[in-house]
């Protein structure tokens, strides 16, 4: 099959899992980039005109794309760094792949890193040296809005490990399970992820196969965090990991003499958000955004979900996996499996750069089986920002496709629920989602909830009453009526 000369194609991949001393994320990123460039088997360095970097969360560095480009000795060109978003690597393929098609750029290095394990060791007294300010500023690309609104902050919600289990409670309620029953079920969902991670002992941060019971049973080494998630059901950010790939126009790859067995094609890519702030979503734990983006890429490529050989569904927390599987109409226990890496909790969750790792591994799979077709999903914030892509070592049936999802996006945005101001969040409401937060050995301590007032408005509330937390622990209280009252710094509630 002939290939359009401007078709974007991945020609080199590289990654690094560092288990040594404290390391700077720029150092990690540069090494992964070198490996990706070497993997092309050609003199690709001189043709890379763009460097794009997902945002670094731990040990952040200013203008990382410029720092990486300078360290590699790359020629001058575009230097892009991105805001928070685990969808970023796949989103960059979509946006920069389109630029390659248009001829405005020729070759892109997409590279990122996290030094979370080093950041933890820094706090123990082994700091990294300070860097001089970068000489040039990176261009910013991507949606920089924060992940949570003032309404969620007013209920004490700031971090993913408390928000995702709220989604999980709604998923459990729809399945007719208590939180304890859901926790046991999640062990079966996530155990296959650990088996995949165990097959990558040099790349996965936790290359250890675990049984469902090991994941879901509370033990001193697997404490309850926020019900129904034990520690082993949470993504782990404190890793030292980097990954990179080189994306260029087919005609440039041909000019450089990159062997065709190195080429992996993005067939199609699309982005769509859910209602941006979780408190405003009509159905917690479901993702119209993933469904729109998934249908868009499959439709643009003339493929169906049955045609997919490999999946890598974003897996920061089980709720993200479940939402994606439902949106894509995939059985959670599909024998094809839902990950090629082991997922963020077991492969390792290197912040915004995880999907670079999944694309790298997907490219390896495609090279081994050129007729295979992989689907990668990237997710930002709280099942909020979604970028999906199809990948194969076989050329796409048409040119690289980036279908327009703007009409569907507008419809999703219009479905947002109104949020009641704190001063009006009084009286009775019905719980739509919640979690029971545990405080170490003291057990159930707090309960944040998303609830619906009689007039349909949503409210975020929280109780710090340990008795209420213990009463709600392990059961199923979605649909329960609560009594709201304004507190000194957030909306409080009690059970009726």
Short description:
With 496 residues, this protein is of the alpha+beta class.
Structural features:
496 residues; alpha+beta; OB fold (Dihydrolipoamide Acetyltransferase, E2P); 2 domains; 6-stranded mixed β-sheet; 14 helices; 18 strands
Secondary structure layout plus pairing:
Blueprint: E1 8-17, H1 25-39, E2 50-53, H2 64-72, E3 78-81, H3 88-102, E4 107-115, H4 116-122, E5 139-140, H5 150-154, H6 160-175, H7 179-198, H8 212-216, E6 224-226, E7 229-230, E8 240-249, H9 250-256, E9 265-273, H10 288-301, E10 310-312, H11 318-328, H12 354-368, E11 374-380, E12 385-392, H13 406-414, E13 427-434, E14 437-438, E15 444-453, E16 458-463, H14 466-472, E17 481-486, E18 491-495
Helix pairs in contact: 1-2, 6-11, 10-11
- Morphology: globular
Give the strand content: 15-25%
Q: Roughly how much helix do the residues carry, as a percent range?
A: 25-40%
Structural class: alpha+beta
Main beta sheet: 6 strands, mixed
Radius of gyration: 23 Å
* Topology, number of strands: 18
What is the total number of structural domains? Answer: 2
**What is the highest CATH level, the class of the largest domain?**
Alpha Beta
CATH architecture of the largest domain: 3-Layer(aba) Sandwich
Which residues sit in consecutive blocks of at least 5 with pLDDT less than 50?
none
Mean of residue pLDDT values:
96
Number of helices: 14
**Fourth-tier CATH superfamily name of the largest domain:** Thiolase/Chalcone synthase
- Head-to-tail CA distance between termini: 67 Å
CATH topology grouping of the largest domain: Peroxisomal Thiolase, Chain A, domain 1
User: Order of strands across the widest beta sheet?
Assistant: 1-8-4-2-3-5
